[in-house]
Design goal:
Elements lengths: L22 E14 L2 E8 L2 E8 L4 H9 L5 E10 L14 E12 L16 H6 L1 H4 L3 H23 L3 E2 L17 E3 L7 E3 L5 H9 L4 E9 L11 E10 L3 H20 L9 E3 H8 L12 E3 L1 H4 L5 H8 L3 E7 L7 H13 L7 E6 L5 E4 L8 H11 L6 E7 L1 H18 L10 E5 L4 E4 L4 E4 L14 H4 L8 E6 L2 E8 L4 H10 L4 H14 L7 E7 H8 L30 H6 L11
Parallel strand pairs: 3-5, 6-9, 11-17
Antiparallel strand pairs: 1-2, 1-4, 2-3, 4-5, 7-8, 9-10, 10-22, 12-13, 13-16, 14-15, 14-16, 17-20, 18-19, 20-21, 21-22
Bound molecules: aspartyl-adenosine-5'-monophosphate.
C-alpha cells in the first residue's frame, strides 16, 4: 500500500533523541546517499533540516532495493523507527545527529535530473546559474534560513504595529507616477490605448490620501518599483515597510520605528538594542563621515584641515584651496604600519572613483622626541604646520594621515570611501554591532547650477523646519526639512518626513521649485485637490524591508533575501523576463516598436 505522504508525523529536523523508539513518517529530498556493504544511508532534507535514514538489506530487503535506485534530489517518503546512532557515529553538528531512522518502507514520489550545482551550504556557483535554478538554490540551508527569517521579521513588524493601533491598507499598483525621483516602469493600457499606468515607486501619495481619509495610523508591507541602476542593495522591485501617521511630529514617527525595530531584533535575534537611537545632523554627517549614511561602528572621522593645508608648501593643496575646494584628513590609528603596496592599492582605487591621488604622511617620533611626519608629502610641512596638523587631527606616533583635496562633494566622496575600505581591511569594524542612527535636518532643496533650479531633496510635499520658515523667502538653499533617515551600520534603511498640509506653504514650495500650475496639476492634481479638504498634519517613513532582512541575516546582498530577484542587468534568469511579446499583443495595446530589439 502506498505511503500516505499527507500523514507526515514530523519534519526531518524534528527527529531528536526524544523520538527514539517511535515510528515516523517523513517526506523530503535526498541530500546525500552512501552505500556501505549491506547498508545504505540517505540524508533526507526538508525545510527544517536533515535526518539520516538507514536501509538494511538484511532486515528490509525491499526498502533497501528501492533506496539503491534513489539519487540526489529525488523526492521520497519513508516510514521507519527512530533509533540511537551507534556510539562513535554521533554527529554533534546536526541537531538530529544523535539518531537515525531505520527505514521499513520507502516510496519514490518523483525523480530528479542531476542538479547542475551541488546544493551545499557554501557555494561557488555563479549567481546567474543559481537564479536560473532558483527552486534548487532555495533548497539550500542559507537560502531557506534567510527566507524564514524574512517571514519572522515581517510578522514581528505586523504584530508590533498592530498592537500600536496601525491598520494595514493596500494601495494600487496600476497607478500614476509617484514622486520618488527614479524612472517609472510603465504599463500600457489596452482599454485606453496610448495611455499608461506607472507602477508605484512608493505608496507616497496614497498614504497621504489615507491620512486625509481619516485612517490616522497606516502601515503596509508593500512592493515598490523603480527603474534604476542596480547594486547589491537595490532591486527594480523591492519591498518597503511603509508608515504614515496623523497628528504627529518627527519624534513620534521615530519612536514608533525605534519600538518596532527593537521588537524585531528582540523576537527574531534575541537582541536588545538601546533606544532612542542616536541622532546626527546631516551637516555633521557630511562633515565628519563624508556621507549622509555614516557607519558609526568605527571612528576614523574626517577632520577639516583646509586652513593648515593652505600654509604648507604642497602645491596641490594650495591650488585646490584657491579654486574654492577643501582639504580634509583621516587619521588611521596605527596606520603607519601600512605597506607601500597597501597604500598604492588605495591610491589606484581612489583614482578609479575620480581622485587625483592619495596624499599621506606617517606620524613618527623624531630625534628630539617630538612627533613628526615621514614619507608621502611630509617634506611640504615645516615644524609649525606639522604641529598644527598633529593637533588638528589628534595624531599619535604610529598613525597614518590620509588627505583629500578637491571640491567639497568630491572630498566627501573620496574620504567616505576611504573610511569604509580602511576600516574593513584593517579589521576596525567590530563584529555583531547594531549601530542605528537617525540623520536629521536634511536640506529641503538642492540647487542644480546646470539649470539654475532648486529640486526637492526628498519630494515636494516635505515640510520645512519651523525655525527655517523665513529662509523660504530669503535663502531657500539653506532651509532644512522635517525629514529623517534611519541608518544601520552605514546602510540607509529608511527615510521619511513630515508633509506639508497647508496649501499656502505648498504653493510657496512649488514656486521655489519653479513648477508651473500646469505641471503641478498634471503631476499631483489629485493630491492638491484632496489637500483642500481638511488634511490633518501628517508624516511618515518607509524602511527597505529587503535591506533590513539582509542586515539582520548577515547577508551581503539583498538578492540573498529575495526568493526570485533580478540580476544586476535587471533580468530574471529563471523566467527569462523581460522578453519580447507577440506582435498581436503590441497591436492590441496600440503599440509599435520603433527600433529593432537589441540583443
Ligand atoms: P525612499 O525613497 O527613501 O522613501 O525609500 C525608502 C527606503 O526604501 C529602500 N529602497 C530600496 N530598496 C531596494 N531597492 C531599491 N531600488 C530601493 N529604493 C529604496 C531604502 C530606502 O531607504 N515615500 C518615501 C518614504 C516617506 O517619505 O515616507 C520613500 O519611498 O531602504
Amino acid at each position: 500500500m502506498a505511503l500516505q505522504y499527507n500523514r507526515r508525523t514530523c519534519y526531518c529536523g524534528e527527529v531528536g533523541t526524544e523520538r527514539v523508539g517511535q515510528t515516523v513518517l517523513l517526506a523530503g529530498w535526498v541530500a546525500a546517499r552512501r552505500a556501505l556493504g549491506g547498508l545504505i544511508f540517505i540524508d533526507l532534507r526538508d525545510r527544517t533540516g536533515i535526518v539520516q535514514l538507514q536501509f538494511d538489506s538484511q532486515t528490509d530487503p525491499q526498502a533497501h532495493e528501492v533506496a539503491s535506485r534513489v539519487r540526489s534530489e529525488y523526492c521520497i517518503v519513508v516510514r521507519g523507527e527512530v533509533a540511537p546512532r551507534p556510539p562513535g557515529l554521533v554527529n554533534p553538528r546536526l541537531p538530529t545527529g544523535a539518531v537515525e531512522v531505520r527505514v521499513r518502507e520507502i516510496e519514490i514520489l518523483s525523480t530528479s535530473k542531476t542538479p547542475v550545482f551541488e546544493l551545499t551550504d557554501e557555494i561557488e556557483t555563479a549567481e546567474e546559474t543559481r537564479l536560473r535554478y532558483r527552486y534548487l538554490d532555495l533548497r539550500r540551508r542559507p537560502m531557506r534560513e534567510a527566507l524564514i527569517m524574512r517571514h519572522r521579521i515581517a510578522k514581528a513588524i505586523r504584530d508590533y504595529l498592530d498592537a500600536q493601533g496601525f491598520i494595514e491598507i493596500e494601495t494600487p499598483f496600476l497607478t500614476k507616477s509617484t514622486p520618488e525621483g527614479a524612472r517609472d516602469f510603465l504599463v500600457p493600457s489596452r482599454i485606453q490605448p496610448g495611455s499608461f499606468y506607472a507602477l508605484p515607486q512608493s505608496p507616497q501619495l496614497f498614504k497621504q490620501l489615507l491620512m486625509i481619509g481619516g485612517f490616522d495610523k497606516y502601515m503596509q508591507i508593500v512592493r515598490c518599483f523603480r527603474d534604476e541602476d542596480l547594486r547589491a542593495d537595490r532591486q527594480p522591485e523591492f519591498t518597503q515597510l511603509d508608515l504614515e501617521m496623523s497628528f504627529v511630529q518627527p519624534e513620534d514617527v521615530m519612536a514608533v520605528v525605534e519600538g518596532c525595530l527593537q521588537h524585531v531584533l528582540r523576537t527574531v535575534l534575541g537582541l536588545e538594542v538601546p533606544a532612542p537611537f542616536p541622532r546626527m545632523s546631516y551637516r555633521q554627517a557630511m562633515a565628519e563621515y563624508g556621507t549622509d549614511r555614516p557607519d558609526t561602528r568605527y571612528d576614523l572621522r574626517i577632520r577639516e584641515v583646509s586652513a593648515i593645508a593652505g600654509r604648507t608648501e604642497f602645491a596641490v593643496f594650495r591650488e585646490v584651496l584657491s579654486a574654492g575646494g577643501v582639504v580634509r584628513a583621516i587619521r588611521v590609528p596605527g596606520g603607519a604600519s601600512m605597506t607601500r603596496r597597501e597604500t598604492d592599492t588605495l591610491t589606484e582605487e581612489l583614482r578609479g572613483i575620480g581622485a587625483r591621488g592619495l596624499p599621506l604622511v606617517k606620524v613618527v617620533v623624531g630625534q628630539d622626541g617630538t612627533l613628526e611626519f615621514q614619507g608621502g608629502i611630509a617634506k611640504f610641512f615645516n615644524p609649525q604646520t606639522t604641529a598644527e596638523m598633529i593637533a588638528a587631527t589628534a595624531a599619535q606616533s604610529g598613525d597614518m594621515l590620509f588627505f583629500a583635496a578637491d571640491s567639497e562633494p568630491n572630498v566627501c566622496k573620496f574620504l567616505s570611501w576611504l573610511r569604509g575600505v580602511v576600516a574593513q581591511r584593517r579589521g576596525l569594524i567590530p563584529a555583531g554591532g547594531w549601530d542605528f542612527l537617525w540623520v536629521v535636518d536634511f536640506p529641503l532643496f538642492e540647487y542644480h547650477p546646470e539649470d539654475g533650479r532648486f529640486y526637492s531633496v526628498h519630494h515636494p510635499f516635505t515640510a520645512p523646519l519651523d525655525e527655517d520658515l523665513p529662509l523660504l523667502s530669503s535663502d531657500p538653499g539653506r532651509c532644512r526639512a522635517k525629514a529623517y533617515d534611519i541608518v544601520l551600520n552605514g546602510i540607509e534603511l529608511g527615510g521619511g518626513s513630515m508633509r506639508i498640509h497647508r496649501s499656502e506653504m505648498q504653493e510657496r514650495v512649488f514656486e521655489i521649485l519653479q513648477l508651473s500650475p500646469q505641471e503641478r496639476q498634471l503631476k499631483f492634481g489629485f493630491l492638491l485637490e484632496a489637500l483642500q479638504y481638511g488634511p490633518p498634519p501628517h508624516g511618515g517613513i518607509a524602511l527597505g524591508l529587503d535591506r533590513l532582512v539582509m542586515l539582520l541575516s548577515g547577508r551581503e546582498s539583498i538578492r540573498d533575501v529575495i526568493p526570485f530577484p533580478k540580476t544586476a542587468r535587471a533580468i530574471c534568469p529563471l523566467t527569462d523576463a523581460p522578453s519580447p511579446v507577440l506582435p498581436e499583443q503590441l497591436s492590441e495595446l496600440g503599440l509599435k516598436l520603433i527600433e529593432p530589439r537589441q540583443s
